[in-house]
Specification:
Oligomer: single chain
Distance between the termini: 23 Å
Largest sheet: 6 strands, mixed
Order of helices and strands: EHEHEHEHEHEHEHEEHEE
Structural class: alpha/beta
Number of helices: 8
Number of strands: 11
Bound molecules: S-adenosyl-L-homocysteine
Shape: elongated
């Protein structure tokens, strides 16, 4: 099916190229055809820890798979090491694919990697992926911009890069109060601050939903009110990776029961 496209080894006239590739939220059926082609052609894959074995099945047997995960709070491969490795492998003629969960440009440092590769004279091809917000919304039947409820949607990280750089949740609450759906990535660890900050500017009964492991067989989801978010996370033992959706669009979502378990049939 995918044999018509090849990724050529770099020649002296073409600069080495790295594929910065979105692996989607986990379900391999959500990979793009372009992503599958690139994975099949790769000789070296540098893989984030949210990218599972079901995705790596598309890699050729001879490919070298380097896991460079960096889950929040866990030991991780230093970013500078990942960047140096990509550059070295590309320069030595390998067909390098950097596999990132979701979309490479939605959080997850794809932008930093792009800048470093370009600065080193390496060509970069970016292959979009389905970001986890979209998979989470689809899982619970929530149109993030349903025009009866929202003017737009805001993707925001709950994991600040350093102290002081945290978003102002009260300010974001004001934005949400204007009819903007909030989608929070990496928010489980700071759900208390998120809830209390938002409550300073929007109502406690604002609809909310959480989707854990969207698109994967172990997917779970829950619908609640904004002022229940943190208690739902602790009583449901909801962990990462999870997406929180806050706003009126979540009112009629499918996730009616607490911690409904969804099976993808795999
Ligand atoms: N580039 C990725 C996001 C990387 S940041 C993307 O586009 O999806 C990592 C965060 O993404 C996690 O903390 C979680 O909030 C979210 N995430 C990634 N995969 C997920 C999944 N399958 N289900 C729910 N959330 C997910």
């Amino acid at each position: 099916m995918c044999s018509d496209v090849s990724i050529d080894r770099p020649t002296s006239s073409s600069p080495p190229t790295v594929y910065l590739l979105g692996a989607g939220p986990g379900d391999p059926e959500l990979l793009t055809i372009k992503a599958v082609r690139a994975i099949r052609q790769a000789t070296v894959l540098l893989v984030d820890d949210l990218v599972g074995e079901a995705i790596l099945r598309y890699a050729r047997r001879s490919a070298r798979i380097v896991r460079v995960g960096k889950r929040g709070g866990c030991r991780s491969t230093p970013q500078a090491f990942i960047e140096r490795l990509m550059i070295a492998e590309a320069r030595s003629g390998e067909r390098v694919v950097r596999l990132k969960g979701g979309d490479p440009f939605i959080f997850g440092r794809g932008g930093e990697e792009l800048e470093h590769l370009r600065a080193a004279g390496i060509g970069v091809e970016v292959v979009s992926g389905v970001t986890s917000a979209m998979a989470a919304a689809a899982a619970i039947g929530v149109p993030l911009t349903h025009r009866a409820h929202a003017h737009g949607v805001l993707f925001v990280t709950g994991h600040a890069r350093s102290e002081g750089a945290a978003p102002s949740w009260a300010a974001l609450g004001s934005v949400a109060a204007q009819g903007i759906t909030l989608v929070v990535y990496m928010g489980i660890g700071s759900v208390n601050e998120i809830e209390s900050g938002l409550l300073r500017s929007i109502a406690g009964n604002t609809p909310a939903a959480i989707v854990e492991n969207a698109s994967l067989p172990q997917e779970r989801y829950v619908r609640c009110r904004l002022d229940e978010l943190s208690s739902v996370v602790s009583t449901g033992r909801i962990g990462s990776p999870a997406i929180m959706i806050i706003g009126d669009v979540a009112r009629g979502c499918d996730a009616v029961g607490l911690f409904a378990q969804h099976s993808t049939g795999t």
